[in-house]
Amino acid sequence: MSTATRGTSAFEGSSLKEVVAKLTAEIRELYTADEVPWVVGYSGGKDSTAVLQLVWLALNELPQEQRTKPVYVISTDTLVENPIVASWVTQSLETMRQAAVGQHLPIEPNRLTPEVKDTFWVGLIGRGYPAPRPKFRWCTERMKIKPSNKFIRSVVRRHGEAILVLGIRKQESQIRAKTMAKHEKRRVRDRLSPNANLPNSLVYSPIEDWSSDEVWTFLMQQENPWGYSNKDLLTMYQSASEDSECPLVVDDTTPSCGDSRFGCWTCTLVEQDKSMAAMIQNDEEKEWMQPLLDLRNKLDVADDTHLRDFRKMNGKIQIFGQDNRLVHGPYTQQSRETWLRELLKAQTWVRRHAPEHVRGIELITMPELHEIRRIWVFDKHEVEDSLPRIFKEETGEDFPGRPLDEHLALGADEIDLLREACEGDELLFTTARELLGVERKFRTMTRRAGLFDALEDTIKRGFFDNKEDAYAYAVRKKQLRDQIPGQLPLTKDDENADASAPHHA
Fold it and tell me: Closest Cα partner for 310 from 421, 195, 461, 173?
């Protein structure tokens, strides 16, 4: 932890008991001050656990007739969370639900998930979005932000306003400290800051001045009020640290157990998944996660252009920068099929070799597989409908999906005949296949408006002889535009070319 973020200790001059008593009194005062419902963010980590414990303790000390408004606990499961953490959170929410009912508390746990169309695997395997990078971070908004914001907006619609109770702390980082300091200046009343992204919602951060070690002190000395073990939480953090311990922090160079970070096991926004690697290293019972770590490392390719189409998602050709680098688009069909095979292999291995309690794990859900299949056949016109075959080959089980409309998919013999007619020209084959797919799709429609536009777009996508021909065309077009400024109209891709990142799909 840097000295810039250390700040003054929240416990300085006070005992833990005094600090907790002061905070729970503040929570009760804020809770009873109005009828605005609360939404508590809960990840299962130390900070959100500490905040929820404080709220729980405060409400337990209120007379039952004053527990008048709901406290919604929301936890977002991206469906690619670290499996150990995801299991922990899911079990914690269920324990919490039962305890709240038993203690007559208005606390309602909610496990949120992204819509099927927004999941990681539908984006990567279905649409072909390349593995996330800092300049193309397509996952966070879809998988984390949208589910929670959707829930919060629904609360605001029903009640007119909402108060978000979050476990954010100034000492987490300099950026977090600066952001919180900025919002402090705009507080509408004590401890409540406006939320810049969600209208009619305020943010309350009760442990904003706590250090990581103060959080752990509280968790270790205060029993979890919904009956879940904080010592087990500490053990989970320990297992995710390379040295397998949570040391006493004595200076700025001493690593804290609070530095452990849990997240999506597929995340390629970090150099390596240190927490999962440490779990596997520290506990032989967690060695079953090795195939997941291996797959994550395969996704994290420094230069993945050989796995991606030379055209953008819309079929356009785009070059970037002074050196005319080609901006590659989504993963090719072959790459997407390979990623699906790798994922199903990992899932099949885990289900056969992992400890009994995790053998039912779903690395990819059946609704996601159905959506990927739909995208491949209907949107990408990959009419050979390869997903059921891949599923059968990798799992040994028949794909449970219903057969597609026979007018929309081509049989194996038809595909072989089409390939033979194209004489090994892969671009010609994919163009002809897409033309057939478009024609078959519109054949089943009552109105065929848009057919000719769809056929024209397909022909434009496959207009080139190969990748080199497409690149040469893009360079010639750019050179001509530079030579005769203002004579050639700029396309949307031309206008955005200089601002686009090489990893953008």
Answer: 461
Secondary structure (3-state) at 39 = strand
Q: What is the pLDDT of residues 375-405, one digit of tens each?
A: 998 889 888 889 999 999 999 999 997 777 6
> What pLDDT does residue 244 have?
41
Q: How far is CA 251 from CA 66, 234, 262, 414, 431, in A?
A: 45, 21, 24, 70, 63
Structure tokens at 454: 């769809």
- Say yes or no to pLDDT of 270 above 60: yes
Partners of residue 325 on adjacent β-strands: 320
Cα–Cα distance, 119 to 460 (Å, whole number): 30
3-state secondary structure (DSSP) of residue 472? helix
pLDDT tens digits for 427-446?
Answer: 888 888 888 888 877 877 77
Segments forming the whole domain that contains residue 324? 308-494
Q: How far apart are CA 494 and CA 176, in angstroms?
A: 37
Q: Does residue 300 sit in the same domain as residue 324?
A: no
Residue 120 CA to residue 81 CA, distance in Å, equals 11
Alpha carbons 264 and 129: distance in angstroms, whole number: 17
Residue that is written with structure tokens 């289900």 in the block: 351
Which helix (H) or strand (E) covers residue 318, if one does? Answer: none
Same structural domain, 33 and 56: yes
φ/ψ (deg, to 5) at 283: -145, 115
Q: What is the pTM (predicted TM-score) of this model?
A: 0.82
| 73 alpha-carbon distance from chain centroid | 19
pLDDT, one tens digit per residue, over 34-93 is 999 999 999 998 999 999 999 999 999 999 999 999 999 999 999 999 998 899 999 999
For residue 59, the model assigns a pLDDT of 97
CA distances from 439 to 377, 408, 413, 415, 485 (A): 13, 9, 19, 16, 40
- Is residue 273 classed exposed, middle or buried when 0-12, 13-18 and 19+ CB atoms within 10 A define those classes? buried
Residue listed under structure tokens 């021909």 = 469
Same domain (yes/no): 312, 428: yes
Distance from C-alpha of 112 to C-alpha of 77, rounded to nearest angstrom: 6
Tell which phi-psi region holds residue 246, choosing left (phi > 0), alpha (psi between -120 and 50) or beta. beta
Q: For the chain, what is the mean pLDDT?
A: 84
CA pair distance 390, 490, nearest whole angstrom? 42
Helix orientation angle between 274-282 and 230-239, rounded to the nearest 10 degrees: 100
- Cβ atoms of residues 340 and 389 within 8 Å: no
Which structure tokens are listed for 234?
């500490």
Separation of alpha carbons 50 and 57, rounded Å: 11
Q: In this structure, are 41 and 84 located in the same domain?
A: yes
Q: Is residue 242 part of a domain?
A: no
DSSP letters, 97-130, are: HHHHHHTT--EEEEEE---GGGSHHIIIIII-PP
316 and 177, same structural domain? no
Inform me whether the pLDDT recorded for 208 exceeds 80.
yes
Number of domains in the chain: 3
